[in-house]
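Below is how a single chain appears once it has passed through the pipeline. First comes the sequence as given, then the structure the pipeline wrote out for it. We keep one example in the README because the format questions we get most often are answered faster by looking than by reading.
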Amino acid sequence: MMPGVKLRTIVWAGGLAAGAAVVGHAAMRTDEGPAVDRELFEALNRGHGEIPDRVFMGVTELGSLYAAGSAAGALAVLGKRRAALSAIAAAGATWALGQGVKKLVDRPRPYEAGAETTRRMIAPPHGTSWPSSHPAVLTTFTRVAARELALGAGARAALSALDLSVAASRVYLGVHYPSDVASGLLMGRAVARIWPRWGRP
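Resulting structure:
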């Protein structure tokens, strides 16, 4: 067992990871799953005006590892080095895990599988589609940072809204299916849940 991690925490993390796998399996391996996933994708990807276009293009890279590094740097400058190191290490672990899973699953991205009906609004990302790394990395970072900083319920809710916004942006901008980002969110929460606490009890 990892130091500082309780059995109940491990069970929770395992359940979240299993949920991510179930979502992916349902979307890719069941009879109706691929069609439902595509329909949901097209409903969000078709576009809903200039303002949503700008908002989602503005927030989407907040889920990158570069953004997590910048946020960790800002925390360190503010004297929160322990929280910064823990959050960026957890985010990096999530990114590495996601890249490994992507290679195993090798799901084509929406604009590759249905180029004629997909509105891709950003440059083609590296890697395959499932799971989505951006919401996974951001969710891990925000949840670990919130725990290390002992943030209150309001701040945690705001960070969760940011996680969901980045997840939605990946679908809206045409680079991920809804199941990709849902699994990414669950994976990010799983890593954050099991990540050992670095701060004082």
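The chain has a mean pLDDT of 95.

See the next section for the split statistics.
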